[in-house]
Amino acid sequence: MRAIWTGAITFGLVNVPVKVYSATEDHDISLHQVHDKDGGRIKYQRRCEICGKIVSYDHIDKAYDDGDKTVVITDEDIKSLPEEKSREIEVVEFVPSDQLDPIMFDRSYFLEPDSKSPKAYMLLRKTLQQTDRTAIVHFALRQKTRLGALRVHDEVLLLQSLLWDDEVRVAKFPALDAPPRVSAKELEMSMALVKSFESDFDPSTFSDDYQAELRTLIEAKLKQGAALDTDATFGEVEGEKSGDVLDLMEALKRSVDKSRAGKKAPAPKKKATAVSRKPARKKASA
Question: Where would you tag: which of 30, 56, 60, 284 has the fewest CB atoms within 10 A of its CB?
Answer without folding.
Answer: 30
